[in-house]
Amino acid sequence: MVKKELGFEDYLTIEDFNKRRYLTRLRASNHNLNCETGRYMSQPRAGSPSTIAESVLSQSTFWRKCCKICSDPSAEGLSHLPFFDPIIEDEQHFLVSCPNYHPQRLALEEEVKSALISWEPGRLTALFQKDLMMSFSIYVHRIMNIRFPKQNLSNTDPDEPRKKTSTRKKRKE
To answer: CA 136 from chain center: how many Å?
Structure first.
């Protein structure tokens, strides 16, 4: 999702705040997927002994980056084996291959599916253009709400526009 030119992006015009927010966070890697949150948890302190304890810490930090749906936590002790390949929960895995979101991927327009499946930087930027961005934003909104249900601040149906609520109290006359 690399941006090659500086300028205003069409997806910033999406009226629904949550859809726009999720796309922006995804684009800026400011999301809570394990690939991001796992790297910041329990960093070793400066001056700590670089021994077995540090290698165990780095392995556990690695496991915090894995997809909790696709990687079995009981296999953590197997990471030293040569053909062991746990699945990191990064943007590509989250959007394209995690089986937890397969039903939502099936509902996508064919153009959006093909851009996601190819996972080529040039095609991914097409997902943020006017013709595909609404379908893509609905998809991202749905799977983010599945992945992070506590952060779901919007309506249950992402196709419905968000209701405007005023925080100001009305005067009694």
So the answer is: 13
